[in-house]
């Protein structure tokens, strides 16, 4: 497997297009196509499903994981030896081993982060990561059940996920709990003849309250968002009525405020929208988050792992989890 072939596979996987991959690699589209075909021929496997977009096949995902690991280790080696594009340019200008040279190109680390973490605690890492000249972070946002799948596909090198299943070739470390609160606008609750529960944790529900809750529309992120169903099931209720789908945390919160349905918000986001009220009869949902990463020796992944754990621990100490 030639490095040029692996680079072509990475570029097509990341851009979804042979044309855009060619542009990223500064070669012709036919050169990218030839490299992919040569790689597929040498392995006897179809690695890319051609189309718009072009996608990595299941067998291609295995090769893609290897390609990303190879890219990561090669980048760290170049950084340690002072090689790379920046070092080469410095030598062209007469930079020698006994003189100061600029740092080599940073190594890209792709991380899948669930949308709620990205909207709450994860950005507290940014000021620290901004001062890491050897790392370029690429975030892939998805729901907490999907991020581990991105790791299996080889799209990312690490992930924050609520999934509990092991991922081949990866280690996992628990981060902690994220709490989601079932909330709705006062107007929506009032329209259903409901009032928000008071301060008492065991306050008796209004007669027929759960039946009325079951008839409220459910606001979801997308078609895979099933967290509300878990809350309804815990209350002995069936899946909620179909409601709007509004992706994006801020837009989702505004849709809740507008009374488009009831839904779940992480506790820190609820603090930013104090007008929302608890839905009677429904209890908060806790999701355990896990940090997954490739199981290989990498100083950059080690450093990022430590930073992620510190950030979540600080988030928990502030009482935001």
Q: How does the SSE layout of this entry go?
A:
Blueprint: H1 3-15, H2 18-25, H3 29-43, E1 48-49, E2 55-56, H4 58-81, H5 85-92, E3 107-114, H6 115-119, H7 126-129, E4 135-142, H8 147-152, E5 158-161, E6 170-184, H9 186-191, H10 209-214, H11 227-234, H12 249-257, E7 263-266, H13 267-271, E8 277-278, E9 285-294, H14 299-317
Parallel strand pairs: 3-4, 3-5
Antiparallel strand pairs: 1-2, 5-9, 6-7, 6-8, 6-9
Helix pairs in contact: 1-2, 1-3, 1-4, 2-3
Organism: Actinomyces bowdenii
Keywords: DNA-binding, Transcription, Transcription regulation
Family: Belongs to the LysR transcriptional regulatory family.
Task: Describe it.
By secondary structure, this protein is α+β, with helices and mostly antiparallel strands. It contains 14 helices and 9 strands. This is ArgP/LysG family DNA-binding transcriptional regulator. InterPro entries: LTTR, LysR_HTH_N, LysR_subst-bd, WH-like_DNA-bd_sf, WH_DNA-bd_sf. It comes from Actinomyces bowdenii.
């Amino acid at each position: 497997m030639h490095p040029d072939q692996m680079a072509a596979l990475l570029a097509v996987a990341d851009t979804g297009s042979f044309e855009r991959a060619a542009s990223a690699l500064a070669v012709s589209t036919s050169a990218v196509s030839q490299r992919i075909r040569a790689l597929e021929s040498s392995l006897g496997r179809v690695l890319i499903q051609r189309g718009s977009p072009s996608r990595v096949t299941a067998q291609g995902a295995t090769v893609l994981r290897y390609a990303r690991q190879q890219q990561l280790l090669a980048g760290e080696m170049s950084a340690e030896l002072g090689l790379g594009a920046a070092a080469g340019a410095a030598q062209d200008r007469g930079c020698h081993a006994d003189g100061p040279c600029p740092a080599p190109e940073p190594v890209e680390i792709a991380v899948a982060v669930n949308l709620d973490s990205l909207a709450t605690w994860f950005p507290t890492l940014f000021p620290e990561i901004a001062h890491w000249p050897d790392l370029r972070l690429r975030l892939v946002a998805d729901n907490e059940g999907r991020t581990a799948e991105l790791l299996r596909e080889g799209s990312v090198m690490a992930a924050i996920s609520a999934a509990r299943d092991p991922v081949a070739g990866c280690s996992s470390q628990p981060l902690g709990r994220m709490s989601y609160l079932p909330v709705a606008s006062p107007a929506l609750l009032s329209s259903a003849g409901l009032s928000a529960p008071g301060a008492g944790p065991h306050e008796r529900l209004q007669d027929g309250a759960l039946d009325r809750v079951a008839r409220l529309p459910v606001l979801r992120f997308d078609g895979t968002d099933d967290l509300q169903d878990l809350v309804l099931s815990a209350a002995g209720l069936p899946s909620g009525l179909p409601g709007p789908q509004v992706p994006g945390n801020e837009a989702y919160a505004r849709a809740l405020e507008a009374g488009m349905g009831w839904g779940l918000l992480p506790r820190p986001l609820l603090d930013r929208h104090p007008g929302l009220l608890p839905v009677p009869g429904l209890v908060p949902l806790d999701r355990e988050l896990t940090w997954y990463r490739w199981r290989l020796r990498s100083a950059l992944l080690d450093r990022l792992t430590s930073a992620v754990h510190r950030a979540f621990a600080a988030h928990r100490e502030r009482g935001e989890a």
